[in-house]
Each structure stands twice: as structure tokens, then as C-alpha cells.
User: Which sequence fits this backbone?
């Protein structure tokens, strides 16, 4: 029996869908490791009472490690087979998690957490891999699918860690992650194809070439700056939410603030939609809508300082806006230099996290100086800065086109 072009196309589409779901799972399970320790801090304090003042170094080391891993490991996807890199990182990550599981002291746990952060950047191989596998007209949808897995991993990590930690102890959380990663590695060996390296540069030149990409690619600079501003707006909100809920009129603990993260699932569900919209209407149109949604969210927050319902609505709008913007920006940058997708992704994500750190600092300072309304105004200012960058760049592009 001969295979018709239609059935062959359907088979290829189904195969691609399966690979994208696998990459989404890889992204979610790997990135979850940098969030497992956050609900376990009090358990760490009880286990290591003599180092109680340094407990906060555990999540800080993990985040610092993740930033370093993005800069030092993520670009390797352009030079080597991404499948091989993912498997190697999983193996090393399991060793780091094993060290955390049996950590005899707080310094050992902090060191293991730094390694966990560095090696959990597997997600930064999975996202560019999806862009490589998908056809150009479906790149946005592919990136959105994998990003939805990453977002669900972030959202569910704290809940899973809290549950396992409560009933089995904090060491079991890291042990369970090892089991999940080993099972994932088995599936990767069976199902994930090899990628095609696109660069022959040595490691030093590969890292150095990222600066040249920043200088040469205006679209990368714009996407990175816009993304940093919007993630700053996002990041200034979440730490302050806990402080808001703890005071008048709510008097609610951090557990309730954590439940707001479940509401953020709206952002994960919106990820594939944002990718398809970027494919159909172009990423710039989706980014314009995203900036508007984020600004609207902070207007809602400004009027919801005493309303849980208003805060929930605002969180949904904020998460949808931020995730749609990120996916659209990534869809844009992957098209700029197909042979350097890992490096352009590294530039974007490093700027993204710098924006997040800036937002967190601004949020804390603004809360203490000006209260909730000040935080909302700061969020609007970051949104306005993103809009200015976005539209000023479009005007320059239009002017260039008219000159030609």
C-alpha cells in the first residue's frame, strides 16, 4: 500500500507534536529544580540550626548558578548536538542532586545548590531545539508549546516540593527529582533525535561571538530590552504581593500568596495561543498587545489593594501578557540567525533575568517608600519603557524602509 502525501504530512505533523511535547517535558522537569528549595527553607533551618542566618543563600546560590549556566553552557547548543548536551547535563545534575540529598552541612547544600542551578539550564537547550525542528511558519507555535511545559514546571515545582517535603522530608524532594530525571533520560535516548551543530567555533570564540551578535542584530537588542522591561514589571509584583496579603485587610500568610502561582497557569495555557498568533499576525503585533495587557494589569492592581478578586484578575492578565511577549520575542530572535539560535537565546535570557533582578529590587524599595500604589506606578513605568522601545524601533524600521 502506497503512502499518500496527505498521510505522510499527517504523520510528520504527529511526529513533530510528540517531539515538542517531549521537549516541553524536558524543559519543565529540568527548570523545576531551581524552585524546589524555596518552600523548604524552614526545613533547612531546622536541619542546620547553627547556620540559620545563611539559609537564604540556598535559593540565592541556585539562581546565581542558573544565570551562570545560561551564559556559559547554553551557547554550546550551536557547537554540539543538543541531545548529547541535554543527556550530559542530566547526568551531572543527578550527581548534584545526590549531593544535596545527603548534604551533611549547610555549606555543602549551598555548593550543591549552585551546581543544581548551573546544570538546570537544560531548558535553554530545549527551547532553541524546538525552533530547529519546526518549519518557519510554525516556529512560534513550537516555541509556545515548549514554553508551556517550562512554565508549568515553574508553577508546579513549589507545590510538589511542599507536598513531598511535608510528608517525606526535604531530602526526599531532591531524591524524587533524580528518579524523574533518570526516567526522562531513558525516554530521551529512545525518542529524541540528534540536532545538527551550526558552528565550528572554539568555546572562547563561541562565547565572545555573542557580543558581536548584540552589536549586529538590532532586533535582538530590541527584543532583549523589551523583554527585560516586561519581566522587571512582572518580578516587582510577586515579592510585594506576599507583603500586601500579610497586612490589612487580608492578614494572610505566604501559603495563600503561593496559591496565586496556580492562577499563573493561565500564562502557561496562553503560551501555545501566543505562539500561533505570532505565526499568523507577526510577533510585533502580539508584543504590542502584551505590553497593553501588562499595563492594564497594573491599573487593575491599583484599584485592588483590598480586593482578592481584583488581584486574581490582575494576575491572570499579567501572566498572559508576560508569557505572550516572551514567546513572541523568542520567535523573533530565532529567525534572526538560525545558525546561532542558542547564542541569541542566551543573550535574550541573560537580559531577561537582569530585568527580573532589577524589578525585584525596585519593587521592594518602592513598597517601603510609597506603598502599594507606588508599586503599581513602577509597574506602569516599566510597561511604558517597554512600549517606548517597541514603538521607537518600529519607527526607525519604517524610516529605513522609506529611505530604501
Assistant:
Amino acid at each position: 500500500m502506497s503512502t499518500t502525501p496527505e498521510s505522510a504530512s499527517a504523520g510528520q505533523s504527529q511526529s513533530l507534536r510528540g517531539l515538542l511535547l517531549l521537549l516541553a517535558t524536558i524543559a519543565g522537569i529540568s527548570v523545576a529544580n531551581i524552585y524546589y528549595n524555596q518552600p523548604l527553607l524552614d526545613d533547612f533551618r531546622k536541619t542546620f540550626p547553627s547556620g540559620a542566618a545563611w539559609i537564604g543563600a540556598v535559593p540565592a546560590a541556585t539562581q546565581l548558578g542558573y544565570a551562570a549556566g545560561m551564559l556559559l553552557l547554553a551557547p554550546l547548543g550551536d557547537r554540539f548536538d543538543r541531545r548529547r548536551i541535554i543527556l550530559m547535563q542530566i547526568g551531572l545534575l543527578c550527581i548534584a542532586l545526590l549531593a544535596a540529598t545527603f548534604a551533611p552541612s549547610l555549606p555543602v547544600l549551598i555548593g550543591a545548590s549552585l551546581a543544581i542551578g548551573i546544570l538546570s539550564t537544560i531548558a535553554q537547550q530545549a527551547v532553541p531545539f524546538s525552533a530547529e525542528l519546526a518549519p518557519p511558519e510554525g516556529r512560534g507555535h513550537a516555541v509556545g508549546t515548549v514554553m508551556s511545559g517550562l512554565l508549568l514546571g515553574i508553577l508546579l515545582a513549589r507545590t510538589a516540593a511542599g507536598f513531598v517535603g511535608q510528608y517525606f522530608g526535604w531530602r526526599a524532594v531532591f531524591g524524587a527529582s533524580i528518579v524523574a530525571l533518570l526516567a526522562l533520560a531513558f525516554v530521551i535516548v529512545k525518542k529524541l533525535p540528534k540536532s545538527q551543530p551550526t558552528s565550528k567555533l572554539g568555546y572562547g570564540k563561541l562565547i565572545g561571538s555573542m557580543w558581536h551578535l548584540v552589536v549586529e542584530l538590532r532586533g535582538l537588542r530590541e527584543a532583549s530590552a523589551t523583554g527585560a522591561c516586561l519581566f522587571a514589571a512582572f518580578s516587582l509584583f510577586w515579592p510585594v504581593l506576599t507583603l500586601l496579603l500579610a497586612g490589612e485587610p487580608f492578614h494572610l500568610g505566604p501559603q495563600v500568596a503561593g496559591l496565586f502561582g496556580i492562577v499563573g497557569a493561565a500564562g502557561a495555557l496562553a503560551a501555545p495561543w501566543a505562539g500561533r498568533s505570532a505565526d499568523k499576525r507577526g510577533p510585533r503585533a502580539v508584543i504590542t498587545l502584551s505590553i497593553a495587557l501588562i499595563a492594564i494589569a497594573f491599573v487593575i492592581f491599583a484599584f485592588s489593594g483590598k480586593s482578592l478578586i481584583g488581584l486574581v484578575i490582575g494576575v491572570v492578565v499579567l501572566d498572559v501578557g508576560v508569557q505572550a511577549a516572551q514567546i513572541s520575542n523568542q520567535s523573533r530572535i530565532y529567525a534572526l540567525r538560525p545558525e546561532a539560535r542558542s547564542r541569541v537565546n542566551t543573550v535574550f535570557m541573560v537580559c531577561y533575568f537582569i530585568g527580573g533582578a532589577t524589578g525585584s529590587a525596585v519593587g521592594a524599595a518602592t513598597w517601603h517608600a510609597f506603598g502599594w500604589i507606588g508599586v503599581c506606578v513602577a509597574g506602569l513605568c516599566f510597561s511604558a519603557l517597554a512600549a517606548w522601545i517597541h514603538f521607537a524601533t518600529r519607527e526607525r524600521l519604517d524610516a529605513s524602509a522609506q529611505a530604501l
Q: What stands out?
A: Confidence is low (pLDDT under 50) at residues 397-404.
